[in-house]
Structure formats: structure tokens, C-alpha cells
Design goal:
434 residues, alpha+beta, Outer membrane efflux proteins (OEP), 2 domains, four-stranded antiparallel beta sheet, 67% helix
Length: 434
């Protein structure tokens, strides 16, 4: 009667154990980059900066609207001597006596491009903040991409050398039997044991690298547990799915480095236009309504005042000229920075193309070499087991299998890193990194 109860308890605790420690499937690079961008503080900082810049646009647009101010003033002594307080309009009239209070309205009627230029500058600075977020996203994506494929490479190479160690250990076991019956020399046994230990050492090295790569990838992607993220074993199907992911057509993609330089140029051009507007006159209106206790010189009190003024800058010690020259030089600097960005991206693309073509060539040749090495090892193992081959051939076939298989994995790694690196650089993954 107690058996069903024990079985139910076992199933219950097994269910709790499984649900408490879920097993996660291998993660795709796109998902890892998205997770990193969602959690990285640098991107959050950039987003707050962009929101702040949107408020700066509203600050600049405020100049289109009238400004209404309430004012009050109480004076003593010589009239008209309180202008330094900042009170204006009817309330500061030199003909008022005693306290005064009221409202002042100021309107920028026409400033020949000053306000428009300030708004345009604020808008371009918002675009610059967007470009900066895109560039930050690229840098984070590159870090994750590097960690992701290093993790996959080291996991794959650990698997390669684990297999080599297992095969060598199996042959070593057969040799022990041969030595026991006197069919092989004890030297063969020690040589194979040495080769097995060599493969195990390399395998353990890559296992440790994989463990650290895995931890770094989880940290960069923002996972709290390494069990939540796992890089894949490299093979052609994985490479095809990871590399073939350009979310934006090549023709419309723009490198974040170029976008950043373009935004900086637009800001410089807006600064130049705003500096040039300072040479122009401006037309302003001022009106006030209020109350004063009494007036001087027997003048009749009035409760309003209005004025229309034209202000023409004539000479400020070359201030405006210097500001325009400064903005012009910054614009020329930004133009050269844009050319430099195009140059750097083009040079990087040439380097990526070199790496891609080299990796493709190695992959095409190594695929055949892996098959030959596998066949060579199987033949050498059978011949040695049948007492027809020698140990030199067998050891060489094991080493050749290890060399070719590991070189194939490295070629896959090179192709993946170069291809995805180029896609990231050229903005083809912009939907991921923005």
C-alpha cells in the first residue's frame, strides 16, 4: 500500500527539480545580441540622453511663443533707478511713484532664422543622439558576437579533442592486450598512452576556455545564470543560419560609424546657420498691463504700455564673425570626419572580405581532408588491430585527424566571425542593434 505513495512522491519531487532547473536550448546570435542590448546600461544611458534631447527641441521651439511674466515693484528715492532688478514695461516706468504691479508679454516677431536655426540644431542633436545609440549598439553587438563564436569554437574544439582522446584510449586498450600476450612492444603502449594524455590535455584546455567563454557570453547577454544560455557546436548548418541573417538589404544599410559622422556633420552645418543668423536684425514686440500707485510730474496714470522694436547688430568686437568662422571650420572638420568614416569602413570591409574568402577556401578543401583523415584513421586502426600496420602509421593518422578536424572548426569560426562582423559593421543588423 505504500508503494503508490512513494511513486507519487518521487514524481512530485522530480517535477519540482526539473521545473526549478530548466534546460535551455542553444541560443542564436541574434537573440544573444538582443538580450545584451536590452540590458546594457550604456544603451539605457543613451536612451535617456535622447529623451533629454527631445526636451531640448521643445525648449528651442518655445521661442516661437509669447512669454508672459508677472511683475511687482516697490521703490524709494530717485525714480527710474530700478532697471537692474529685471522688471520691465509699465512697472519700471520712471514716471511711476510708489509700488507697481502687472503683467509683461514679450513676443519674438521675426528674428531672421535665429529661432528656426536653434530648433533645427536641437533636431540635429537629437539625430546625433540616435546615431550614438546605434554606434553603442554596434559596439555591444561586436562584443557579444566575439564572445558567442569564441564560446562555440572552444566548445567545438573541446569536442574534437575529446573524441581524439577517446579513440586513442580505445586503441591503447587494445595495445595493452597485445602487450600482455607478447604481440606488441610495451613501447607502443607508452607511446599511445602519451598520445592519449596529450589529447586529453588539449581537450581539458578547450573545456576550461569554453567554461570561461560561456560565463562571459552569459554576462554580456544579461543572463543571470549560465544555464540560460548555451552557444552551439560549430557546423555548416549553424554557420548558414547565423551568417545568413541580414535584416536590412545591403543597398539600404548604412554603417553606424558613417551614420554617426553624418549626424555630426548635420549638427555642424546647423551651428553654422545659427551663427550666420546672428548678423541679421530682429523684430520684437513688448506689451504690459498693470497698476501703479501714482505718477510723477502730474502725468495721467495709464494701465498699459506697448512697444515694437527693431534690433540691428552692428559691431561686437568680431564676436559674430569669429563664431561663424568657428562653425565653418567645424563643418569642414565634420566633412573630413565623414570621409574618414567612409574610408575606415571601406578598409574594414576589404579586410573582412579577405578573411571571408580565405575561410571559404579553407572550408571547401578541409571538408574533403576531414573525410580522408577519417578514412585514413579507420584503415590504420584496422590494420594495426590485425597486426598488419605499424604504430607510426596509426599515431600519424590520429594526429592528422585531430589536426584536420580542428582546422576545419577554426575555418568555420573564421568564416562566421568575419561574415557576421561585416554584417554588423555595415548596419545590416540595424534592427537588432537599435
Amino acid at each position: 500500500m505504500q508503494k503508490p505513495s512513494k511513486i507519487l512522491k518521487f514524481l512530485f519531487f522530480s517535477f519540482i527539480a526539473v521545473t526549478s532547473h530548466p534546460v535551455f536550448a542553444e541560443i542564436k546570435l541574434e537573440h544573444a545580441i538582443r538580450k545584451a542590448i536590452e540590458n546594457h546600461p550604456a544603451l539605457k544611458a543613451g536612451e535617456y540622453g535622447q529623451l533629454g534631447q527631445l526636451q531640448a527641441e521643445k525648449v528651442a521651439q518655445a521661442a516661437y511663443y509669447p512669454k508672459l511674466t508677472g511683475m511687482g515693484l516697490m521703490t524709494a528715492g530717485f525714480p527710474g533707478s530700478a532697471a537692474a532688478t529685471g522688471v520691465a514695461g509699465l512697472m519700471i516706468s520712471p514716471f511711476h511713484r510708489g509700488p507697481s504691479a502687472g503683467f509683461l508679454i514679450e513676443q519674438n516677431i521675426w528674428d531672421f532664422g535665429r529661432t528656426t536655426g536653434a530648433v533645427r540644431l536641437a533636431e540635429m542633436e537629437t539625430e546625433l543622439s540616435k546615431a550614438d545609440i546605434g554606434l553603442t549598439g554596434l559596439k555591444i553587438g561586436q562584443l557579444v558576437q566575439e564572445a558567442y563564436f569564441l564560446c562555440a569554437r572552444d566548445r567545438s574544439l573541446a569536442q574534437v579533442y575529446q573524441r581524439v582522446a577517446q579513440e586513442s584510449a580505445l586503441v591503447e586498450g587494445e595495445v595493452k592486450n597485445f602487450v600482455r600476450v607478447g604481440q606488441k612492444s610495451v613501447v607502443d603502449q607508452y607511446l599511445l598512452k602519451s598520445q592519449t594524455e596529450e589529447a586529453r590535455t588539449v581537450a581539458e584546455d578547450y573545456e576550461k576556455r569554453f567554461e570561461l567563454d560561456h560565463r562571459r557570453l552569459a554576462y554580456l547577454a544579461g543572463f543571470t545564470e549560465t544555464s540560460q544560455v548555451l552557444c552551439p557546436i560549430l557546423d555548416e548548418s549553424v554557420i548558414s543560419s547565423e551568417v545568413g541573417l541580414p535584416l536590412v538589404p545591403v543597398a539600404s544599410a548604412v554603417s553606424p560609424w558613417v551614420s554617426m559622422a553624418q549626424a555630426q556633420l548635420a549638427v555642424s552645418q546647423s551651428q553654422k546657420s545659427l551663427a550666420q543668423a546672428e548678423f541679421s536684425p530682429k523684430l520684437v514686440g513688448l506689451a504690459s498691463i498693470g497698476w501703479m500707485k501714482d505718477s510723477e510730474l502730474g502725468l495721467a496714470k495709464q494701465n498699459y504700455s506697448a512697444a515694437l522694436a527693431v534690433i540691428v547688430p552692428l559691431f561686437e568686437g568680431y564676436k559674430s564673425v569669429s563664431q561663424v568662422n568657428q562653425a565653418d571650420l567645424r563643418t569642414m572638420q565634420s566633412e573630413k570626419n565623414l570621409q574618414a568614416a567612409h574610408f575606415a569602413v571601406d578598409e574594414a570591409n576589404l579586410n573582412y572580405d579577405r578573411g571571408i574568402e580565405s575561410a571559404k577556401l579553407r572550408i571547401s578543401h578541409l571538408k574533403a581532408e576531414v573525410k580522408l583523415a577519417e578514412s585514413g584513421f579507420q584503415i590504420a586502426k584496422k590494420r594495426y588491430s590485425a597486426l598488419q600496420g605499424n604504430l607510426v602509421d596509426l599515431r600519424e593518422s590520429i594526429r592528422d585527424l585531430a589536426r584536420v578536424t580542428s582546422e576545419f572548426q577554426v575555418a568555420l569560426y573564421d568564416f562566421a566571425t568575419q561574415s557576421t562582423g561585416k554584417a554588423l559593421l555595415n548596419g545590416q543588423w540595424s534592427q537588432v542593434i537599435h
